[in-house]
Amino acid sequence: MIDKSMLQTRKLSILIVDDDSAQLMLIRMLVEQQGYEVITACNGVEALKLFRENPDIRLVVTDLDMPFMDGFELIRRVRQEQTKYTYIIVLTSHEAQHSVVAALNDGADDFLTKPAFNEELQLRIKSGIRLLRLESQDELILAMARLSEYRSEETGYHLEKVQRYAALLGHDLLENCKKFHLTPSFVEEIAQVTPLHDIGKVAIPDNILHKPGKLTSEEFEIMKEHSVIGGRMLLDIFAKTGSHYLKTASDIAMYHHEKFNGKGYPEGLKGDAIPLGARIMALADIYDAMTSERCYKEAFSHEKVKSIITQERGEHLDPDVVDSFLRQESVWLTIKERYQRINVLPEKS
């Protein structure tokens, strides 16, 4: 019988990966009985291809010992390429405890001992879906951010991409730049609120926001007001709710157009005086804007944008943040290309 409390997640797809056809058929049958859409693969290569082609896949159940690409490599690739968090359950045997530990270290969330039993499988899947539901706050933030995105007619998953890029920068700086004294929770907070960076554009007149050509100096001064409007709006909500992530969101919205050399706006802050979240957002925003096609320009290549970012090290951009980008540029390129493949957002009229 289908658990009715799970009906709201019916669009969620579950990818099952196993080179044992009997085991694959059994798990597929058990999962389909719960009312989920099931996609199957017999090895990691096939699974990764299906994962790339099906953005609705949010939960993966995979064996570890498979030909062509094993489950360990599949886990690492899914973690690298996911655009939303994907819950991963690994299938293992009783005597393979060391494999479970290795899989969890690679990014798996849970494990299931073979042969799979229906009740245990249900519990594992429900645990995964409970975690995925925690994304509701992120979805609310994205919904708020759409107000500005739709008005400015930006397409191509701009908000999701800058969120991913900011997360990459934050996690890398956490590991490699101890002077910032970052914590994992603050890194997640920065990534969570980046979609709100341009929320102030809701107050910019259409004739300026949608102008295809270069803005006049007077128009540009009006456009620049979006950072202050957005920052103050979020700060006001923070004062009323006490939700700390909104303070971080306010800093990013207010200061992501500041420059490391002090020549940005709205306050001309310089260097470390600019909140770190805003410095991270600046690079993420620049990279996506330059590598994306707009009505008034073609998309720049990754190499061209990399050259521009490198030239702006210590000028527009924080040197440590630029170095973080360079350490992981191949991952950025993978994310950019993945979003190009799944860019199925409807055109805005």
From TrEMBL:
Residues 133-341 form the HD-GYP domain. The modification 4-aspartylphosphate is found at residue 63. Residues 13-129 form the Response regulatory domain. It comes from the Bacteria. SUPFAM superfamilies: CheY-like, HD-domain/PDEase-like. CDD domains: HDc. GO terms for biological process: phosphorelay signal transduction system. Keywords: Phosphoprotein. This is CheY-like receiver and HD-GYP domain-containing response regulator. It comes from Desulfocapsa sulfexigens (strain DSM 10523 / SB164P1).
